[in-house]
Amino acid sequence: MTDTCKKHCEANAFKIVIRGLEGEVARLKERLAQEKALQALHNENERLGLYKDAYVEQEPLIGCVNHDCAKCKERTEQEPDYWLGYGLQAHTEKPFDGATPVYTSPPQRKPLTNGEIYTAYITATNQMLRATDERLAFAFARAIEAAHGIKENT
After folding, report:
1. What would the DSSP string read from start to end of 46-58?
2. For the chain, what is the radius of gyration of the CA atoms?
3. What is d(CA 93, CA 84) in angstroms, rounded to the nearest whole number?
4. pLDDT (tens digit per residue) in 46-55
């Protein structure tokens, strides 16, 4: 191989490497522009206060397991039909403070508000509800409510 041929091959190799690097630089510039656009969108959403409820420490939406927390006790609107005392005896009046309430029909639950569904979505997914997914999320929540017999009081 002559010196001229060798120099020509090296020059072509450098051109190929430079073209590859230029393409990689273009891809990096595009990704940087996307990141800047996303950051600008995030900053605008934050300025508008759209994230204010997302970062607030919230209680789990499922509540307590035994439904003996203050929030669950507060929600119970109906009075118990009976009370279980010692020896599983049924009483029409509460015999003592530790007696167990007995209901013959479940408490009537109200449907979630749109805000509660939105908060549940954020809590469950750890992300904001996008406008494109909003209708699907609300329809899903309403279908679950309907399956559990929860309907709007009319």
Report:
1. HHTTTTTTTTS--
2. 31
3. 10
4. 777 766 665 5
